[in-house]
Amino acid sequence: MLFGIPIWVYFCIIFIFISGYMAIRAMRAEHDLEQQFIEKEGQVYLKRMENEKERRAKKDKAMMSE
User: Fold this and answer.
1) pLDDT grade, residue 66 (50/70/90)?
2) What end-to-end distance do the CA atoms of the chain give, in Å?
3) Which residues fall within 8 angstroms of residue 1, CB to CB, at 6 or more apart?
4) Rounded Cα distance, 22 and 58, in Å
5) Whole-prediction pTM
6) Dihedral sign, CA of 44, 48, 53, 54?
7) What long-range pairs does 23-29 form, CB within 8 A, spacing at least 24?
8) What is the pLDDT of residues 24-61, one digit of tens each?
9) Is 6 helix (H, G, I), strand (E, B) or coil?
């Protein structure tokens, strides 16, 4: 016993801090993963919009030449 406090109390306090650290680390990892997914979906959306714009431009060009 240190300072009249049983050793298991110190272990509990240490485990609480470790648990908090692990939770914060997991939240950061999940946030990074979500950001990567959002970035990837954004690129897919932009590519789809670009393809649609090209398709409409070809359609308009074909209609103008008729």
Assistant:
1) low
2) 94
3) 7
4) 54
5) 0.60
6) positive
7) none
8) 999 999 999 999 999 999 999 999 999 999 999 888 88
9) coil
